[in-house]
From TrEMBL, chains A, B:
Homodimer. GO terms for biological process: glucuronoxylan catabolic process. PANTHER family: ALPHA-GLUCURONIDASE A. This is Xylan alpha-1,2-glucuronidase. Residues 30-151 form the Alpha glucuronidase N-terminal domain. It catalyses: Hydrolysis of (1->2)-alpha-D-(4-O-methyl)glucuronosyl links in the main chain of hardwood xylans. Belongs to the glycosyl hydrolase 67 family.
Length: 721, 721
């Protein structure tokens, strides 16, 4: 029986080509793959430098650190590194906090301890009795755990570990995720499946995912998590649910992660049986005090409350003629005795306020500066509108020197293509963090405002709205894991370069092969500008389709609130396009420091990337490239599409460096992104063309569908809505 | 620096004890673990008998078979078994359908081909030129794939593979899963997360899970899937969704799995723009014909429609004064030209019908016998009420000889503790399948009714309401995987013993170690009786709490429909308890064959396990054990609790045989089950005690809470509701 040879080969190939394991293992492991180091020279060297582990202390956190280092080393080096009782043999890896170290060890790191804070760590090669060892230490056990993860990172990224002398500390106190998770496990703006929290099986069933979630967060220094939606349900504060929250807090505790909850302002009515939630009402104050005591009895290290009040229909102090200060301080007093904090969101805009929505949060909150309790921190979105592909930094940053402001970034891609589009967000975060508010003169960057250095605040914080769900790969898109990772890295140190972070993530997640790193890193770094170009170039914003925000909807103009309509934001007409927020318009520019306002106000000096955010510009206006605004707009949309095309080209060359499952996932997703980038280009240009009345430049591809076709598209079950 | 030895040991242990990998890999792989055969003797023997693979044919299905055999063998044997061009060397594994075999091979299996049907397979050791080989063949490519999975099963269960001579064929044509999945990805009665189908990313993103779902189903012979909820949404029939369904059908096709959809009867109005959905209306008939043509243009092997009509608020032909025959036949005519079928559900009961709900489906459908088109099959739940822990077989089985009846089992545990309780359902399925309807005299078992042998039907079918969700382990409870597996095995052969199936599943999923198999198999086999005992002993039924059906609610009596109230079903009063369905009562017994009715009618002969299903019995009535009904009821509840306790004891001894993650998962879940079994016992006994007015027997533990406490429990976000 003879098979034609071609068939035989074809079958052999088919086995090579098709992904075929029942495994999404790599996907699940995130950046903690701990695969064996490929370069055998490096691997051997690592092994020779790490003969054993000497662990000091016995807290849950230290035990966690030991397990992690053993797990990591056994994977990376390929040998189980065992625990030793002492440092008699050389090349021990010594783990322990400051108090656990004896003099012989301590004198090696005296000066380093002055360089770190309570969560910082030291990784240093030391000599004991002429024997070299590597010491990982810190002032606290959690610092030791952070040191362990960062030591493992050195190996994961194939760096040398001779004569190590590393000290590092987080610049921001509160580094947290905000989960917009509902109790029915749907996730508002969630695109990676559904909530991780299986409320029905809690408290008695601890999903392995809870542990791995904590590991992943600890590995990047995240130390807090708000596990429920800011559009809150009071039931989370009932004993039935607090028992479940307590179980999660117990899982997260050894990893240095505090649990926080959102507080529904009307909870005293809904679950407390009171007639009012007025923050001045004695019974209400007392109810919150007792509720706080009840929570802390279960969770002694409970972090505190996050509150969305009088915003988008949520109840708040204004329902009772009180203001945000009254509400925030009342809750702050309830948690203060237990060391808790209140994070009060500044994301407010009123249907009764006819002013530019971009101005409202500033107008409402800035006058309150100095009136909040010292355990209140005001949480401000990075921009004045709502997590757009690009926004100028929020004018509140730098404007409330007496109030600690907490940054709220969005990791989930509500307005950036869900978990379908590859967009590397740390690039966006860095742009915001580096923006100069000039609040205390040049160099008063947003980073320095939120880490408290400009105004010397004791508490500082940064929150990322999580993109995590119960998809096997956690984030829906394999590359969306980089946004979770990158957020954590910037939360630890907001001065880091997003390029370094991208490279670390790629090495830890995929491969250390330069032929992979270089092109894929470039692809990531370009991805954010690409999405701006094919969705909202030149300062356009909020022209996504209604409700779900999936795809273009610049034509939407019929929503109950004017400031929910895309037409409110682009203001396209036959004269031109853009929102005049300059002196001649809403004068939102006046909310910035004079140095900044001056630049934004002046059409000629306003950065073109923000042009239509601040100005209504004639279609014929010439940009720096010499092209008219209309042509430039069209060319930007085309450029975005071209960028996604080249992302595809890059990725298609990477098959040999990536496991089949992830290679194909990314390939399929990039294809969809390319399709949808064209959809954005065609829909927006056809729509704006009605007003410009001009032809598309030659280098812009002609739309393949009519405007009516694009308007007709409906997505009744778009996720996250 | 010296560590106290105890601490050193403690730390070493902590690493052994705590599960600590970021992996739920085993969980995900289901019964297709393909782990290396532990017994080296057996492994060596397997390797010696399989030197290579000679694959004939080049269909997608054959390529799939090749990939699966290579994946399986490389795992089980630990060596990659390569493809060979011919059988010149001995011990080849030859794969190919009948037409691909040459004479030399064919003459070895001439007689076997007469023993199998189109989906059957042959696994036989043959001789070619004095060289031994193993042949896996069939009449069709899908038969070959089934043969491959069953050959792998031999290895997975460590059976010998000398002189093989196996022929096997499925006894039932249509072996399918029903997914009650909604387009928003919630799953009605789903307890394993949310829907697998990511509609937003379809059609262009093919989740690896879709492929692995198909592999798992093909491995047990499932050949159809209804991917959306019987409480249907017409949007699934729009081009926007059909394009996505087409993509799934393409993934499933090589695995022999046909896609079916539920048809919302009012679709012609909702998405067709018609004024009516009257099955006699020409425009309606035409709309369905064109819709069918549209679907088949995309999916040539589309299976057909599943319809829930005029049931629990779903629209149907009765809205237009027509009947079920009119509706079913109209749809049947639409799909007939393409070879499609219509599965019409018999799960109907009317709020306007004051008769015993258990009688209504029979009363309505039996008169229609013989009036349905020959491509209509009526889908009947295993019992007359609704997927209870135990029900007598549905009286419709055997009562409609001219109509093929399709069995509908529920795999998801709506009334059996969700995915939290370990209940091995094949035991329940077997009990139903072995029930004798006496429709054509003794031996007319339900199995013989549904496989068509009693009444010589051309089409036969069996459906299982899936327990599959996007949890990493697919089914929420690791042991719930056995219910998916077991359903498939019984769908292939409804005469199999559930004990054999449990043993195969345990060996494939966990271990071949007898010290594990024996006790855990016993635990599984006992689990179904345990849940009956602690929930609904002695024929009690439908006393679960309202809506979500989680936990006990025998007191519920205030629902809009009387036949939704638990009190309707148990009818407890001071005289006694139970639903009199005998001659003296609703006379539901008369719907069974006289031989069966006679037994159920007679209190003395009625099986005690069904006693309160058919009779209202005095609290003092003496059961065969000599105890009063009240005491027996209480003792049964206690027995259920004791059984779960011993399941815990058994499992706790199994740690050494199971990976840490799954061991702990099952351990935690069994603990919850034990808690909830007590909850059931205490709540039900306290409630019924109000009527019996009697003390609990000594051997029954005293309740630790009051009846009011149990009544006060609320589960606002219980899953699946």
């Amino acid at each position: 029986m003879n098979q034609p040879l071609f068939l035989y080969i074809l079958l052999q190939l088919s086995f090579l080509i098709a992904p075929f394991n029942m495994s999404a293992q790599e996907d699940y492991k995130l950046w903690l793959q701990y695969k064996k180091v490929q370069d055998t020279k490096i691997a051997t060297n690592y092994h020779s430098k790490i003969n054993g582990i000497v662990a000091l202390g016995n807290s849950e956190t230290i035990q966690t650190a030991i397990k992690e280092i053993q797990l990591g080393l056994s994977g990376l080096i390929g040998h189980q590194i065992t625990l030793q009782k002492n440092t008699n043999t050389e090349n021990m890896l010594i783990l322990g906090n400051q108090s656990s170290l004896d003099e012989a060890v301590l004198k090696n790191v005296k000066s380093e301890f002055d360089l770190i804070n309570n969560e910082g760590y030291i990784i240093k090669t030391i000599q004991l009795k002429n024997k070299k060892h590597i010491l990982i230490t810190a002032k606290t056990d959690i610092g030791v755990l952070y040191g362990v993860f960062n030591f493992l990172k050195l190996l994961q990224t194939n760096q040398q570990i001779e004569n190590l002398a590393i000290t590092d500390s987080p610049r921001i106190n509160i580094r947290m995720l905000n989960h917009w998770d509902n109790l029915d496990r749907t996730v508002e703006r969630g695109y990676a499946g559904f909530s991780l929290w299986n409320w029905q099986k809690l408290p008695d069933f601890i999903d392995q995912r809870y542990i791995d979630y904590a590991r992943a967060n600890a590995s990047i220094g995240i130390n807090g998590t708000v596990i429920n939606n800011v559009n809150a349900n009071a039931l989370i504060l009932t004993p039935q649910y607090l028992e479940k929250v307590e179980a999660l807090a117990k899982v997260f505790r050894p990893y240095g992660i505090k649990v926080y909850l959102t507080a529904r302002f009307s909870a005293p009515i809904e679950i407390g049986g009171l007639k009012t939630a007025d923050p001045f009402d004695a019974a209400v104050k007392n109810w919150w005090k007792e509720k706080a005591a009840e929570i802390y009895a279960r969770i002694p290290d409970f972090g505190g409350f996050l509150v969305k009040a009088n915003s988008e229909g949520q109840p708040g102090p204004q329902n009772y003629g009180r203001n945000h200060v009254d509400g925030a301080n009342m809750l702050a007093d309830a948690v203060a005795p237990f060391g808790g904090i209140v994070m009060w969101r500044a994301f407010v805009y009123s249907e009764h306020d006819v002013n530019d929505r971009a101005k409202q949060a500033y107008s409402e909150f800035v006058p309150y500066d100095g009136q909040f309790r010292n355990n209140v921190i005001v949480q401000v979105k990075n921009g004045a509108i709502d997590f757009q592909p690009r926004e100028p930094f929020h004018p509140m940053f730098g404007a409330m020197p007496k109030t600690p402001l907490m940054m709220e970034f969005q990791i989930t891609q509500e307005y950036l293509g869900f978990s379908t589009h590859l967009v590397y967000l740390p690039k966006l975060y860095q742009e915001v963090l580096e923006s100069d508010t000039y609040s205390k003169g040049k160099g008063s960057t947003v980073a320095k405002i939120i880490d408290g250095t400009v105004d010397n605040h004791k508490i500082s914080g940064i929150a990322g709205v999580a993109n995590i769900g119960n998809d096997i790969n956690w984030t829906g898109h394999p590359f969306a894991q980089a946004n979770w990772y990158g957020f954590g890295r910037l939360a630890w140190n907001p001065y880091q370069d997003s390029e370094t972070i991208a490279e670390d993530w790629l090495r830890m997640t995929f491969s250390n092969d330069e032929k992979f790193i270089k092109p894929v890193k470039e692809m990531m770094l370009e991805s954010r500008e690409a999405v701006v170009n094919y969705m909202t170039p030149l300062g356009l914003h909020h022209i996504m389709d209604t409700g779900h925000h999936y795809g273009p909807g610049p034509w939407v103009s019929n929503l109950s609130r004017p400031d929910w309509n895309p037409t409110y934001y682009h203001k396209a007409d036959t004269k031109g396009i853009g929102f005049d927020r300059s002196k001649t318009g809403s004068n939102a520019t006046a909310q910035y420091s004079p140095e900044v306002a001056k630049i934004f106000d002046d059409v000629a000096n306003c950065p073109e990337k923000d042009l239509l955010w601040f100005h209504h510009i004639s279609w014929d206006y010439k940009l720096k490239n010499g092209e008219t605004l209309w042509n430039s707009l069209a060319l930007k949309y085309q450029e975005g599409v071209n960028q996604v095309e080249s992302m595809n080209t890059t990725w298609n060359k990477m098959e040999q460096y990536v496991d089949q499952v992830r290679f194909k996932e990314v390939q399929m997703l990039l294809n969809i992104q390319h399709k949808e980038a064209k959809w954005w280009r065609d829909a927006c240009l056809l729509y704006f063309q009605q007003y410009s009345g001009k032809e598309l430049p030659k280098s812009v591809e002609k739309p393949t569908q009519t405007l009516n076709y694009f308007k007709s598209l409906k997505f009744p079950f778009a996720p996250g809505n």
